[in-house]
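Milestone M4 deliverable, item 7.
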Amino acid sequence: MSESAAKAMPPGLVVLLLALLLGIQPVTTDLYLPALPALTTELGATVGQGQLTLTALLLCFGLSQLVFGPLSDRFGRRPILLGGMALYTLAGVANMLATSIEWLIVTRAVQGAAMGAAVMCARAIIRDLYAPADGARVMARSLGGLGVIACLSPLLGGLLAPLVGWRWSLATLAAFGLVLLVLLMLRFEETSHQRTPLHPASLLRNWLRIASHPGFLAWAGLQAAAYGGLFTFLAASAFVFLNVYGVSRPLYGAAMATASLAYIGGTFICRRLLARVGLQGAVKTGAVLSLAGGSLMGVLALAGVHTWWAFLLPHYLFMVGHGIHQPCTQTGAVAPFPQMAGAASALSGFFLTVVAFAIGAWLGARIDGTVFPLINGIWFWAVVIALIAWGPVQRWGNVSHPVLAGAK
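Output delivered:
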């Protein structure tokens, strides 16, 4: 960690800020999911249009990072963060005031673009301040905090939706954005002091260098596959739990919260695995859990066991694996590029969004009143996770190698 940054921001503050910046994603998605069926009905929308409030947000989330990444490398993380959080807060107010599904889709898209600034900068800040091995441990601590946020968000959403309605669920997002904006204004100090030019030719060379790097592709591919399984759950679980399993909204919120607890457990396991076997060894173990969870829920569904516990118990295994994968992949993807951490973070984030948008479009057409679109989707991504973690990551993902990790 640089001396100036250490004086301005002690490690505990860095972990807190990173947890909140990364936690903005589950706040923005998980908190409103229990209200998704209600807002879809009240605004006279179809299931596919309701899904667009999530997929449009995530598409703009990914695209905006391709803009914010190079801008943060050129002008620093602080101005991008402050501008992004101000826009996020304003979009949250507009969400609450929506009078049509089209309005809500547009304002959620704007909010997703603003969210991209927060998450992209968080991943880049890790590379600004820490070498890859240390960065993975700090990321695991921060993602443990994200897990707490992800645990509380669906519980709060499950309570707000039936008590005060979906508009107040969305108003809570604006409040979160305002609090984070004030905290950043008061306590965050710039972490990037190297300025990468924005000339088109230089940008193109940087993008090509990142996109052709085998280590980046391995780690970013694993990150996208792990998020693919998570997003399948986020996008389809409300309809399956509420309409197929017939559980109440508070119980659905509790189910999402317990899944987040499993994820938090995974981040603790990750920190211990990192000390023993490093990033590559940790994701090998995580892939075993991911594949076991996805396969077990798939086999139970094929056997005709269509109950909420037959899904949720295997899903805990998948989420523990996810808690191992996330710190490793987010650190590994930016590790080779200490001078272009913003651009590398942006490109890896864009991969996530391409996957999420494809899943959202697929689910919008496939949700059919059964458990199979949800379960088959997670099972598919569990297999992909295992193939990447045991293959490309082991071959090209050695971030300790000086050529891959870069000089710090």
